[in-house]
Design goal:
45% of the residues lie in helices and 13% in strands. By secondary structure, the protein is an alpha+beta fold. The chain folds into 2 domains: 226 residues, Peptidase C12, ubiquitin carboxyl-terminal hydrolase (Ubiquitin C-terminal Hydrolase UCH-l3), CATH 3.40.532; 48 residues. It has a 7-stranded antiparallel beta sheet with strand order 1-7-2-4-5-6-3, sandwiched between helices. Strand 5 and strand 6 form a beta hairpin. The longest helix is centred in the last third of the chain and has 43 residues.
Length: 328
């Protein structure tokens, strides 16, 4: 049940501007393409990571006695922000908030020197929900108009409905976001589908890159070798801040360009380009007809069909032409 929440993509630009639009200051996301701890450590300070993975359907996911890795820390749910997930499509934003709301430097929920200015609206939301049990925190999150509206503003436009999804009988793969973050000397896995925060043992802030990668490697190892659809993003301090502090003009311009690119991509996500594509196609057809009438048009159609058949044949033979895009 979506409850009015739309699916958003697992993309650093989406999650960074989601953070900013919720009111958080000087914080961003960076996508990680490797599980090497050194790569994560270079982004210091790192507040936490968000991991996207295929939701397992062949075995029970949530346990009441003990998790597959680590141990449940039921008492921690009273000290840190942990919310049960009550809405399906909200898990990306919920994972983001699981890190963010435990790093508020003014609310006393972060370790010294590692906090984030999460802004007044989220600070008030945190203060209100911390007196509630996790299941009611999840309900409060799902019913927050501010959080839901910001989340939905990054939903990808889907002008076409694939009717085969309703009739094929094949279940569509589901994906899930969870968060890992060090809190008060402990590495926690925060997953709203589990009954409590999961402790992965003692972890100082500077040990986080190495220890979280060990946990993630064990988790990925539980999947078949052919499963590669994982995504990992780190919540870090705005890299422009560091560039300004050390006077690195080149790095600053690179980060500013990245923000401009993200803004452009996010704007594209909100638009339906069906009308535009139709107008382009109409113009191309008119040009072909003007070139040589119906004969030129028919020749163009046959050439396009031949190219399509060739691409399909290449794919059947394993010849590529088949990029796969996965969203969260």
């Amino acid at each position: 049940m979506s409850g009015g929440w739309n699916t958003i993509e697992s993309d650093a630009g989406v999650f960074t501007f989601l953070l900013n639009n919720l009111g958080a200051k000087d914080v961003q996301f960076e996508e990680l393409l490797t599980l090497e701890p050194e790569v994560l450590a270079e982004l210091h300070p790192v507040y936490g990571v968000i991991f996207l993975f295929k939701y397992p359907t062949d075995a029970p996911y949530a346990a009441t006695d003990k998790p597959l890795d680590g141990t449940f820390d039921h008492e921690a749910a009273e000290r840190i922000f942990f919310a049960a997930q009550t809405i399906q499509n909200a898990c990306g934003t919920q994972a983001l908030l699981s890190v963010l709301l435990n790093k508020d430097k003014e609310g006393g929920s972060s370790e010294s020197g590692t906090g984030i200015d999460i802004g007044t609206p989220l600070r008030e939301f945190r203060e209100f929900t911390m007196v509630l049990p996790p299941e009611f925190r999840g309900e409060a999150l799902s019913n927050s108009e501010l959080i839901r509206d910001v989340h939905n503003s990054f939903a990808k436009s889907s002008p076409f409905v694939d009717e085969t999804q309703r009739t094929s009988g094949e279940a569509e793969d589901a994906f899930h976001f969870i968060a890992y973050t060090p809190i008060n000397g402990t590495l926690y896995e925060l997953d709203g589908l589990q009954p409590a925060p999961i402790s992965h043992g003692a972890c100082a802030a500077d040990e986080f890159p190495a220890k979280v990668m060990e946990v993630l490697q064990r988790r990925i190892a539980r999947y078949d070798m052919s499963e590669i659809r994982f995504n990992l993003m780190a919540m870090v301090r705005d890299l422009r801040v560091r560039a300004r502090e050390i006077g690195d003009a080149e790095a600053l311009e690179r980060e500013e360009q990245k923000r401009r690119d993200w803004q452009f991509e996010n704007a594209l996500r909100r638009h339906n380009f069906v009308g535009f594509a139709g107008a382009v196609l109409k113009g191309v057809v008119e040009d072909k007809l003007a070139e040589g009438g119906d004969a030129a048009y028919e020749k163009w159609i046959e050439e396009a069909k031949a190219k399509t058949r060739q691409r399909l044949e290449n794919k059947r033979k394993g010849g590529g032409d088949g990029d796969v895009e996965m969203g969260g």
